[in-house]
Amino acid sequence: MTVTSEQPATDVRAELNLTRLGPRFGAEVHDIDLTRLRDGQVQALREALVEHKVLFLRDQDVDDAAQIDFGRRLGEVTAGHPVHDSGDVPPEVYAVDSQDNGFADIWHTDVTFVRRPPAISVLRAVELPPYGGDTNWADSQLAYESLSPGLRAHVDTLTAVHDGSREFGYYLAQRRKGRGNVWEGETFTDLVPVEHPVVRVHPESGRKGLFVNPGFTSHVVGVSAEESRGLLDILYAHLTKPEHVVRHRWRRGDVALWDNRSTAHYANRDYGDTRRVMHRITLRGDIPTAP
């Protein structure tokens, strides 16, 4: 099944029927078919994603090919993952399978351990457990804006290191024998840590947001280990306050889109030995910019 294109509409604001899940964070989009999108709807989804940061679409009949086709209409689809073998799915797809240690049960933003992290992720439910397995998203812009003015001014100046070796180093060395996938035109052979600003300016909205996450951020540059841990613990606790989080209960046919430039997410691992399989694609992003 593939995505088809129709003529664009004149007013993209009229293209979507959505229900807000909060004043500025999270929305469910109704009455839309990802396999039959007008150009105006594609543009409206992009704009809604910048505003609401995570969008949920129910009752979508899509396979891997349709998911990839939809991603290509939103932007430039990357490899599914810098180091993970795609296995029996297309190379653009990253299969998160609980039977292959695919859990994502730590707060993270996708692939921040590269120089140019993905801008957008698109995730669909393939196989769901009978209970549990919800996903949570945190609004990093709201979290930044609700910090005290003094702390905002301080973190505006900071840089942090993001390191993928803690999560994927063993996999790359042992299972892939030091040869990963092509990402940004180069084959991944080593997970070299990169530096990103602690506060990131969104390239489309101009809003500031926290850009650190427990999954891949190792430390803050230029401070002691104790200061780094204290700062990051404060930011993580603030980022994941309930007021900053939206939670999604998955159903078959669900697709979620989120803006990696303004969110972090966490998949609940509360379904015992039952299986949970999700397929994700990512869209090429830009180099994070400091205030």
Automatic annotation (TrEMBL):
Q: Which InterPro entries match?
A: AtsK-like, TauD-like_sf, TauD/TfdA-like
Q: Name one GO molecular function term.
A: metal ion binding
Its cellular-component GO annotations read: cytoplasm
Q: Name one Pfam family in it.
A: TauD
TauD/TfdA-like domain residues: 19-282
Membrane-spanning parts: none
- Alphabetical keyword list: Dioxygenase, Iron, Metal-binding, Oxidoreductase
Could you say which protein family the record assigns here? Belongs to the TfdA dioxygenase family.
Give the protein's recorded name: Putative taurine dioxygenase
- The organism encoding this protein is Actinacidiphila reveromycinica
